[in-house]
Design a protein that fits this description.
The protein is α/β, with parallel strands linked by helices. About 50% of the residues lie in helices and about 15% in strands. It is globular.
Length: about 260
């Protein structure tokens, strides 16, 4: 077992099975907020994964009680949102480039950008108390990656339910609709056990090619759709008064006053 990165960093990683499996713990804040510092650290992990030929799988989990409350709301505000979107979407492009199997071990809250991160993973292992939600619309904004990734996992109807309502669902409902793949009291143990039994024994080079082939459609969707979604987000959504109002109302802990424009 080899430890990577000092504990003061927002991410802690352990290399298991002679480096074939990485156990990645998200941290840095109470709810493991995906802010610039955490996103950059996670991107660095997957850049290294691109070059680590013996790596088969990465398991993502949250530090403490929750998986992640999502992306930083402050970094969604005008003046920062364009940089935030580029940084966050760059993470997913790097994860896709790495072509390693990604597993998510989810406890309690998995919201917003946290759900986008989990939904990108090949399999989601959830605790019985896990809650999944894409609540951006409640704040007057939307989820670019969630709009693509949830439709890949759930189909259009399931994705639209979560993205348009902003509601959260429990672990059993997530399992029923195909969002969560396994429910286990110890999702971290279950995810690592799955990797050790089914992924570590495989050829790393063949497994990565299999991942690339399985995700050709997703890769094309990201290349074709994400630039237009980003344009709509930055040029139209963020030009509306309601988007900034929703974000500031959340930060001020008050009810937003929509102007519907």
């Amino acid at each position: 077992m080899e430890k990577m990165f000092p504990s003061i960093r927002p991410i802690h990683v352990e290399k298991l099975e002679d480096g074939a499996l990485w156990d990645v713990e998200l941290g840095g804040s109470k709810g493991n907020i995906l802010d610039a510092k955490l996103i950059d650290a996670l991107t660095e992990i997957f850049r290294e994964a691109v070059e680590t030929k013996a790596l088969r799988a990465v398991c993502l989990r949250g530090q403490g009680r929750h998986f992640s409350f999502g992306a930083s709301v402050e970094e969604h505000l005008p003046g920062e949102v364009d940089v935030m979107l580029a940084r966050f979407h760059g993470l997913f492009r790097t994860m896709l480039e790495s072509a390693v199997v990604c597993l998510a071990a989810v406890r309690s809250q998995c919201l917003g950008g946290g759900l986008e991160l989990a939904a990108f993973c090949h399999r989601i292992f959830a605790s019985p108390d896990a809650k999944f939600g894409q609540p951006e619309i409640v704040l007057g904004v939307l989820a670019p990656m969630g709009s693509i990734l949830l439709s890949e996992r759930l189909g259009r109807s399931g994705a639209e339910d979560l993205c348009l309502s902003g509601r959260s669902i429990n672990a059993s409902d997530a399992y029923r609709i195909g969002l969560a793949d396994v429910i286990d009291d110890d999702p971290e143990r279950a995810a690592l056990a799955y990797a050790q039994e089914y992924l570590v024994p495989r050829s790393a080079s063949s497994l990565r090619l299999a991942v690339r082939v399985a995700r050709l459609g997703l890769s094309k969707r990201l290349d074709g759709e994400l630039p237009e979604i980003e344009r709509l987000y930055l040029e139209e959504l963020m030009a509306s008064s309601d988007a900034e109002e929703g974000l500031r109302a959340f930060l001020d802990k008050r009810t937003p006053h929509w102007r519907n424009q």
